[in-house]
Amino acid sequence: MLLIKLPFLNKKTADQTNKQKLKQDNLPEHVAIIMDGNGRWAKRRGLPRFAGHKQGMDNVKNIVRIANKNKVKILTLYAFSTENWKRPKSEVDYLMKLPMEFLNTYLPEMIKENVRIQTIGDCNELPIHTRKSVQEAKERTSSNNGLILNIALNYGSRYEIIQAIKDVATDIKSDNLSIDEIDETLFNDYLYTKHLRDPDLLIRTSGEQRLSNFLLWQSAYTEFWFTDAYWPDFDESLFEKALSDYQQRKRRYGGI
Ligand code: FPP
What we know:
It is built from eight helices and six strands. The chain is an alpha/beta fold.
């Protein structure tokens, strides 16, 4: 028999396979994303860095829609780290405006899609306009029971862990807790993420392959997925590729 390779047919088959796999029910419930590469996306186009952040912000809305479509329950996005304060003031100021801009533009759509907005990180250090718009979004979506859009704002995992240790120590000192009661479950309750399951899948865009102080405790058994695409270019097909690759993983949690 004559075997001829037809590349376009092969591609179609691969795409169909992806779609079939996504129909299975072992999709990740909690997806966390390090949205990296906004600056390089802009530079490649001869644009200022803030244009990359703006495009990245608009992409958040697309990714929320795709997460919702694929029955993801929690989407945690790393929007601003405790280390990002080191950036030039003009960039920090712009990044601090993005949550407000995002919510001004997309909150009605989020409400319509039954999305619940939450945050992790130390909101006390945020400028008042950022804090107010985030607080309002949390309140207006608090009774929604669809996808949780969990925005990590002024978040740093080491800071989170140190704060948790201080709170545990305070509770011991005031006789509200004994040392014998400390275990992983209890410690978990002192973290920003106490109400959330650990991430099943963590995605990082832009070719970098590190955690950058994101969810260090919570990602002990998380599956990682990396792509060279910059965050503004991270689209539906890449997201669904990440989800279908996740479905192929065997999670053993140290067992066999
Ligand atoms: C990292 O790319 C990205 C950030 C520090 C900001 C991410 C923020 C958004 C995508 C928008 C936030 C949206 C909401 C809803 C709050 P980089 O600037 O480090 O890129 P580079 O490594 O190419 O310079």
